[in-house]
Fold this sequence. Notes:
The chain is α+β, with helices and mostly antiparallel strands. The chain contains two helices and eight strands. It has a four-stranded antiparallel beta sheet, with no helix packed on it. Strands 2-3-4-5 form a four-stranded antiparallel beta sheet, with no helix packed on it.
Amino acid sequence: MSGEQDIMPLKISTALVAAAVLALTPATAALTATGASASASAKPNLRACYDGKCKLTLTRNVSFRVSPRFGITRLAISFNSGTVVVRGTGPGVTSQGSMSGGGSVTVNGIRVKVLSQSAARLKLSLTPPKR
């Protein structure tokens, strides 16, 4: 030996990494399936509202695309403990409605109904006009 040590580079086997990932997957899947995962429940599916028909649970103000058949292309929803404001916008058009203490409002044919409301959470249903 000349005082120098042979240093082996650290290599992680692909099999070990795959085994570690697979070991974690069932726990993560169980959390998601039971609704215990915070990230799964915190993000509403806004794309489902494109056709003007969906149910949402919001924890923050949102804005999302809607079908241009409504005469608008975007719907924005903001809220606090007592008021909900729904604003529809599109090329050259703005339409807005607000409600206090629950109820519903219609913006360009899309009916937005409050199911429950607090300062931190808002549950809504959206319904398109009947054809």
